[in-house]
From TrEMBL:
GTP 2 binds at residues 228-235, 275-279, 340-343. GTP 1 binds at residues 54-61, 101-105, 163-166. Residues 48-211, 222-395 form the EngA-type G domain. GTPase that plays an essential role in the late steps of ribosome biogenesis. Keywords: GTP-binding, Nucleotide-binding, Repeat, Ribosome biogenesis. SUPFAM superfamilies: P-loop containing nucleoside triphosphate hydrolases. Belongs to the TRAFAC class TrmE-Era-EngA-EngB-Septin-like GTPase superfamily. EngA (Der) GTPase family. The gene is der. Associates with the 50S ribosomal subunit. This is GTPase Der.
């Protein structure tokens, strides 16, 4: 897809008009590169990933700020300020890596604290090395020892950081952390910078040059996560695709615990399939192996490029099915819906299932669909066209001129409603990135959620985007004062 001369002249005129508005440095950078990022140029950065883990209030975010050399992570003297995983680009001694700040990990977490602990565990799963932060003044707690068990199970290299060591006396207390069995504790004061260089040197010694857990390598087999609630037939489908009993299959929900990678030839080309444990209804009610299985499922989605969500066609579409679909969308992955056990349905069930799909899955009407039987292998080849179209859409880029011409036509036919005597104007739009496609719209005023959904729908009608979530974000910019 390329711009016509008309599209190019529209883009040029709109860019000139933007000069009348207050734009940030970030805006100008986006407009200068036209949204082309390193990943779009075909380069896979592959930079190693470091997760910072520890219980609440041990100073993880302070350490992040110290490593970055700027106050980026929010720091307060109360536990639980950081809740999500947040990734930052970091550098030490000429080595670039991604630093992931996490919320505090607790053993018996519930409610929002459970989500925090869950995010921390997924961060470990997706990291090449871990900085484990312990409060040297408090010493090793039961929670710290539980984290050690978690880290041992992950097999990731760990650098133990004894934080809040501000003087010689506390340095002796830090030495007691040898008892955790993770090797030398590095005494550090994240607040004052004392000892952080030595800890980071130790980190670089165990950090690989290139990430071994990068979400995916370009040019290799496309990575597919098989996900769904327990007992919908994920393992049966993988066995059928592989042509052998690769995975234990049992009617007991939750037989699968570890993700199993499998290179499978489908439609004449190789695909890397991951069979994952079913996503549990309430993670905090499951402990031990099942608890970690549900976390690994989330990690598998994030490592994949496209997810096949398997749904049992014999049963009513459940809340858990919708939640799995939402998890794929939230992770920004391409999506294919597969309705299993289709061969067992009578006409009446098929009729009611179509009504359920219209009612419960209307938000993903754009996702390709395949009706299959994992047990007999019927129509499993129909997954291939769905996977291919979803991945093509996930990678799709709309030229800036074409995008602005199209939006101009849409807005002229259906302008934004007037609110408070003002009508916001769309000034310019660009596609910021692919995988999934993300669009940034510059506007002179607030664009309502309903109108954003309308724009997203029209983008799909015009450019396809079948099988991929798309994001439309709006930056409101005011006219520059003369």
């Amino acid at each position: 897809m390329s711009d016509s001369p008309h599209d190019e002249s529209v883009e040029k005129a709109l860019r000139v008009g933007l000069d009348d508005f207050d734009l940030s440095e970030e805006d100008r950078a986006l407009l200068a590169t036209d949204g082309l990022d390193a990943a779009d140029d075909g380069e896979q950065p592959g930079r190693p990933v470091v997760a910072i883990i520890g219980r609440p209030n041990v100073g993880k975010s302070t350490l992040v700020n110290r490593v970055l050399g700027r106050r980026e992570a929010v720091v307060e003297d109360i536990p639980g300020v950081t809740r999500d995983r947040v990734a930052y680009d970091a550098e030490w001694s000429g080595r670039n890596f991604t630093l992931v700040d996490t919320g505090g990990w607790e053993v018996d977490a519930s409610g929002i604290h459970l989500r925090v602990a869950e995010q921390a565990e997924v961060a470990i799963e997706l990291a090449d090395a871990v900085l484990f932060v312990v409060d040297a003044k408090v010493g090793a707690t039961d929670t710290d020892e539980a984290v050690v068990r978690l880290l041992r199970r992950s097999g990731r290299p760990v650098v133990l950081v004894a934080n809040k060591v501000d003087d010689q006396k506390t340095e002796l207390e830090a030495a007691a952390l040898w008892s955790l069995g993770l090797g030398q504790p590095w005494p550090v004061s994240a607040l004052h910078g004392r000892g952080t260089g030595d800890a980071l040197d130790a980190l670089l010694e165990v950090l690989p040059e290139k990430s071994a857990v990068a979400a995916y390598e370009r040019g290799g087999p496309r990575r597919v996560a098989l996900v769904g609630r327990p007992n919908v037939g994920k393992s049966s489908l993988l066995n059928k695709l592989a042509g052998e009993d690769r995975v234990v299959v049992d009617n007991v929900a939750g037989t699968t615990r570890d993700p199993v990678d499998e290179l499978i030839e489908l439609g004449g080309k190789p695909w890397r399939f991951v069979d994952t444990a079913g996503i549990r209804r309430r993670v905090h009610l499951t402990r031990g192996a099942d608890f970690y299985a549900s976390l690994r499922t989330q990690a598998a989605i994030e490592k994949a490029e496209v997810a096949v969500v398997l749904i049992d066609a014999e049963e009513n579409i459940a809340e858990a099915d919708i939640r799995v679909v939402q998890q794929v969308i939230d992770a920004g992955r391409a999506l294919v819906l597969a309705f299993n056990k289709w061969d067992l349905l009578d006409e009446e069930r098929r009729h009611y299932l179509e009504r359920e799909i219209e009612r419960d899955l209307s938000q993903v009407s754009w996702a390709p669909r395949a009706n299959i039987s994992a047990m007999t292998g019927r129509h499993v080849d129909r997954l291939v066209p769905g996977l291919e179209v979803a991945l093509d859409s996930w990678d799709q880029r709309v030229p800036t001129g074409r995008l602005n011409s199209f939006l101009g036509e849409v807005v002229a036919a259906h302008p934004h409603p007037v609110r408070g005597g003002k009508q916001p104007r769309i000034l310019f739009a660009t596609q910021a990135s692919t995988r999934p496609p993300r669009f940034v719209v510059f506007a002179s005023g607030f664009i309502e959620a309903g109108y954003r959904r309308f724009l997203e729908r029209r983008l799909r009608e015009e450019f396809g985007f079948e099988g991929t979530p798309i994001e439309v974000s709006v930056r409101v910019r005011e006219k520059r004062r003369r």
